[in-house]
Structure prediction request, 328 residues.
Amino acid sequence: MQSEKEIVLESGARLPKVGLGVWKIDQAVAPTVVCDAIEIGYRHFDCACDYGNEPQVGQGLRDAISRGVCRREELWLTSKLWNTYHREEHVRLACERSLADLQVDYLDLYMIHFPIATEFVSPETRYPPGWVEDPNSGDPSMSSVRVPIEETWRAMERLVEGGLVRHIGVCNFGTSLLRDLLNYAEVRPAVLQVELHPYLAQDRLLRFCQEQQIAVTGFSPLGAPSYIPIGMADECESILNDPLVSGIAAAHARTAAQVVLRWGIQRGTAIVPKTSQTQRLRENLDLFDFELTDDEMVGINGLNRGRRFNDPGEFCEKAFGTYFPIFD
Ligand SMILES: NC(=O)c1ccc[n+]([C@@H]2O[C@H](COP(=O)([O-])OP(=O)(O)OC[C@H]3O[C@@H](n4cnc5c(N)ncnc54)[C@H](OP(=O)(O)O)[C@@H]3O)[C@@H](O)[C@H]2O)c1
Prediction:
């Protein structure tokens, strides 16, 4: 079920369709960006242990709440379980750390960040732990461990029972992993978060989730721009320069980014665009007073080329010397 600005989940809870993604928001500016975002109207924040800025995001949330801009209950806060904490005995510890850093006593959504389990790193040793076991070794690499997702999911379910989190979900899962999870889940995944933009439309995954009543959030909804500065995409791969998108933007007197983001929400997903710039915070939320025509939606759908920018099968080998495909 959908309302104008929110997706109504199976539980009846309302997930705001546009959230602020906070990956790569510098610690130094995160409190201000988050507080400004709340003032501008954002109520959904997409956080994670791995982004290394939960204390600063928490500071921004606290500032806005203490100034009376909004109440905690009006916010939708998502965080994610990192790969090093998949063992049953580490899940609660990881969640409690995110709660403490964000300065809240519950999360609206806690997600398994990747279907990848790596060796535990104690928070005293390093936090956030990152991808490799020993970053100071001459030849750092990932060390995977044998933890079934069922074990992790059971521990996630205990977090719901314990009142630490309201919903649980998964990121970077395909239909096969979801089907398996649905066989044993006592608490169903409320949300799937995956990479979604016009160059990676994933229609079949969306259709499956719709049938299963799992809401979907698209990450990297603008596609390449997040990945160009870190060498994972080329400038020429930006959907924001696509002539079809530019034409539609001109027809609506909107920006290319707004057209791409509107496409995301109009096909029924939530989106979590990241920006550190105040003007773009406004731009990326200002999506509810125009609509793409059916022809425009079909045209943008036709741009799909299956281009995945965030692919552990690529970046783990380049960055961490470990071949780790998960989508193949
Ligand atoms: N679950 C997962 O595995 C996973 C993986 C990746 C991301 N995520 C989540 O998804 C969020 C969004 O993804 P993302 O950060 O990769 O990419 P994104 O939101 O699609 O794009 C962010 C990039 O686009 C720029 N940008 C933002 N608004 C713009 C606009 N209106 N016009 C032009 N450029 C604009 C930003 O620069 P400025 O900051 O300079 O504006 C930044 O370089 C993340 O922050 C994170 O919360 C989750």
